[in-house]
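During the first year of the project, the team set up a workflow for recording each protein of interest as an amino acid sequence followed immediately by a discrete structure-token representation. This format lets reviewers and collaborators read both layers of information side by side without switching files. As required by the reporting guidelines, we include two representative entries from the current panel. The first entry is reproduced here exactly as it appears in our internal archive.
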Amino acid sequence: MADKGKGQGKIIAQNKKAWHEYFVDERYEAGIALFGTEVKSIRAGQVNLKDSYCSLKNGELFVLGMHVSPYEKGNIFNREPLRDRKLLMHKREIMKLGGLVAQKGYTLVPLSLYFSGKNVKVELGLCRGKKLYDKRATEAKKEADREMDRRMKDRSHDD
């Protein structure tokens, strides 16, 4: 199910590097299988999506490289910070995404982690990699927009 402007809850973490490295063509929402101490650690904001990506194994979708710091009061119940975590999606969605990733050279990248009610959800992006000149063009456009905003702000203060 493609995310068409769904209301996200409280955003916990975002993968800003993904927006720099990839063109995001489509977005999807998935649940994530976590243990109690991991949820508590995520509530405290102890999560990093920077180098994470998704992989298809045996018809199931997993997020790899997502770092969830051990919960400080979790002692023996804590799990490995970088363990593979299962994503919860309908089988037909997983098969569709698996087909796109295999054929067209797309990559599935976690874009953000947020709460939807009491559940932790992951926003996945179906992404294409950017070339170096694409990254430069994006950076140049951002810089031009910043400069234009600065000038408009200066102009409004002069009046």
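The second entry, processed by the same pipeline in the following quarter, appears below.
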Amino acid sequence: MNYYLINFTTHGDNRGFLTVFQNNANLPFTLRRIFYSFGIPVKARRGCHANRESEFVVVSVAGSCTVLVDDGTSRQEFVLDSPQQGLYCGKMTWKEMYNFSPDNVLLVLASTEYDDKEYIKDYEQFKKEVLK
């Protein structure tokens, strides 16, 4: 499957919790880029694209949001509301994020550096390419 949930090992005690992201240990790719978004209006939609080469793990480190993923043949929604779990999105997976809680911080771990040319921002174009 081109998308699935990953449960992260979390260490904690009375001082709090710690989750570590480490190449090839709890990520299905070598980490090349990290970014996060916050202050997103509750009714906003983010993403709305697919990537030809990039793989992602999306983690809601605070608050919650819904992620719709589509591999060209099936669609599924995931509610991300725990920093102990991430959503893996493989190459050629359409992603849309919405239903952001006001306190949401969305962390994204990526397998590639940013390259606008590998983004597909039109859903019909995505369908044409993914169903070849």
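For the second entry, the following points were noted during internal review. The longest strand covers residues 56-62. The two ends are 17 Å apart (CA to CA). Both points are flagged for discussion at the upcoming steering committee meeting.
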